Amino acid sequence: QGVLVSGLGTFAVVQDQFHGTQEIYEVRRPVFQLDMDEFFVEDVAFPTVVIPDSVTIKPLNFSWLSRATSFPRHVVEGCVQETILLYSFHLRNKERLDFIFKDIGVLSCKNDVLCMRFFYECVVGLESKASCLALLHT
């Protein structure tokens, strides 16, 4: 399952296998795949994340956000688009601000590397059995 935030990227949950000394661990972990206009990130490096084809990706649900915030859909959609555009311009102008996603993590640019750092609670909320392994590989 994943959510495409147009102009920014895709948040998804992937399942990976990791080999331990005596067993194989299957863990669910969050990933972020950047999909921002190259104009804004031409001087910035970012990790390449591949989301498997088996993961269902849906666009951000503006109708749901509208109901959750009590703002009209067009207002919510405009706010999201303008926030992404503002963050993009900050990156382009070499202003390295953190972009915080409540309950998910922080998109930050340190030393010209743009990276999504997921909150501890987000990772362990997805994976209860092997949360330490999921944290190490996220």
TrEMBL record:
This is CCD81 protein. InterPro entries: CCD81, CCDC81_HU_dom_2. Signal peptide: none annotated. It holds the Pfam family HU-CCDC81_euk_2. PANTHER family: COILED-COIL DOMAIN-CONTAINING PROTEIN 81. GO terms for cellular component: microtubule organizing center. Residues 57-128 form the CCDC81 HU domain.
